[in-house]
Amino acid sequence: MKRNEQTIRDLEFSRRDFLRLGLAGAAGIFVAPHPFADPVFADDKNPLSGANLFRDVVAYSDLGEHRTATEIDLKTAEWIAKELKSAGFATNFQSFTVKQFFPTETSLKIGGKNFAAFPLWFPNTTKLLRAPLRKAGEKPDGKAAHIALVRFPFDARASIFKSSGHKEIIDKTIAAGATGIVAVTEGATGEIIGLNAMLTTEPWAVPILCVGGKDAEKLEAEAAKNSSAEIVLQGKTEAAAEAKNVVGKFGKGKKTILVSTPQSGWFRCAGERGAGVAMFLGLARWAAKSRLDANWIFVSTSGHEFGGLGMKAFLEKSAPKKEDVFAWLHLGANFAVWNYEKTPDGLRKTGKAESRRGIPAAPELTAPLSKAFQNTGLSVTARAIGEVELLLKDGYRAFGLVGANAFHHVPTDLPDVTAPELLEPVGAALVKSFAEIFATAK
């Protein structure tokens, strides 16, 4: 695959710099190492080439659904640790416990038809709940038991939190006599959207299943007929399920640089999480070959769906003090995905990168980051969400990458939502970011 021209120029500079230093040494003249020289890789070995980054996106997605503390999440942690070790990092796991629900059977049948459904965390289980389906807001006779059909309006954050409005919809519906709820999650794809549980770990008062927006009209037609609805929602809840962060360390330089990314999510999360994990591993391999005077700490965290519990655990017990950190990069969600447009036949790729993305950053990093990310489609923004918000609130000299994704939190967030040609320019810009940040260091 062709590398972008700017990356080629960077590598050519590194080769010239390397030769200059080598010749000077041979002549007996001492030359201090260049403060920032990009290591030289053969094209197929460059860890930040689009092809190599995309390979790791596929590997991450192929592991399975990445929910916190599941077997796949633990396997993901082992895989990340193995890759860091292969790059020369010393690694360890930071274990922490979370309350987690492990579903064993989920089904929704209405009017004799089966509909794809997914539990709303934290679930109230039922072996079988059968009642008429009614649209929320329609008063049944008296307080007759019924399963209510509600709509969750689209929110790009795909999370339940204090002001998101989801709890108000649920509480009002239960107060009207609903013994179960079918919630339509509205979104561009029409698929089921997994919603982060950031409000409470207590089960909802009734069983709640989420369905995709593509089924909304069919379900409303069934609700108009008060068709019989059947909910099955079975599984086990563990009060203290084990999850693992991965911590990798390399180098003993004077400046401590952290790189972090979430590793967990609702489904396969290729664009949301896979691009970040791939960039995380690519940067680790690059960092191990770089000549930066740095102490590198790479951290991948679980618990993302529950308000960033893994990052909170790391900050509480393992993170260096803010005054000891030179820079902290957080690789957030969806920073290298395709843009899509709606058509009568569904979503279609426009052939352009998603434009709704940015770089939340500490104020003192605005200038170097703006220079490094020129012409990439990413720009520095004051708005921070997710784990990078935690870092900035704690006063770290941090910056992050985050963006929107039409397939955010849906089962079809698969590798084709990103591509080598979207990933490679971001990797090149991140290398330049470190160069610019070092250049401005006092």
Give your account of this protein's structure.
- The protein is about 30% helix and about 30% strand.
- By secondary structure, it is of the alpha/beta class.
- It has 2 domains: about 35-100 and about 240-440, Aminopeptidase (3-Layer(aba) Sandwich), CATH 3.40.630.10; about 115-225, 3-Layer(bba) Sandwich (Glucose Oxidase, domain 1), CATH 3.50.30.30.
- The strands form 3 sheets. Strands 1, 2, 3, 4, 5, 7, 9, 10, 11, 12, 13, 16, 17 and 18 form a 14-stranded mixed β-sheet that branches. Strands 6-8 form a two-stranded parallel ribbon. The protein has a two-stranded antiparallel ribbon with strand order 14-15.
- A hairpin with a 2-residue loop joins strand 14 (about 340-345) and strand 15.
- The model is unreliable at about 1-35 (pLDDT under 50).
- It comes from uncultured Pyrinomonadaceae bacterium.
- This is PA domain-containing protein.
- InterPro entries: TAT_signal (IPR006311).
